Amino acid sequence: MSGFTSAEASILQALIQLQHEVGDVKQQLAELRQLAALPDQFVELRESVDAITVQKDFYSTREVADLMGVTQHTVQVRWCSNARIEAEKDPATGRWRIPGHEYERLRRGGKPRAP
């Protein structure tokens, strides 16, 4: 760099390098802002999926067990038999069945009632 002392040239080169690094940081910040928007996009997607999901009149104890991450035995014996969730026996089969609105309550984070 003609016309500059070696100290000035070093400072100028350092400033140019910093300018490039600032540009890189700005690009990374822009990418992070896009990532920050992802949770909102996931919520919108989930709401869209929920809107097209067909709700059944009744769900099996297996379906509720899968939803809640527990065993079918827990749903049948601990929750249905003890009225911790709304459930009824199917008159045709004698098996427990859970109404659609109760399934939705659980799916949205609801918990079984205390014993």
SSE layout:
Layout lengths: L5 H31 L1 H15 L5 E3 H8 L3 H9 L7 E2 L6 E4 H8 L8
Helix pairs in contact: 3-4
Structure at a glance:
The protein has 115 residues and is mainly alpha-helical. The protein is built from 5 helices and 3 strands. Helix 3 packs across helix 4 (72-80).
Indicate the overall shape: rod-shaped
How far apart, in Å, are the first and last alpha carbons? 81 Å
The major β-sheet equals: 3 strands, antiparallel
Could you name the ranges where pLDDT drops below 50 across 5 or more consecutive residues?
Answer: none
Structural class: mainly alpha
What level of helicity do the residues show? Answer: 55-70%
- As laid out across the biggest beta sheet, the strand order is 1-3-2
Give the tags.
115 residues, mainly alpha, 2 domains, three-stranded antiparallel sheet, 5 helices, 62% helix, rod-shaped
Account of the protein in words:
This protein is mainly α and 115 residues long. It has two domains: 6-50; 56-107. Helices cover 62% and strands 8% of the residues. A three-stranded antiparallel beta sheet has the order 1-3-2. Helix 3 crosses helix 4 (72-80). The longest helix has 31 residues, at 6-36. The chain starts with 5 loop residues before the first helix and ends in an 8-residue tail after the last helix.
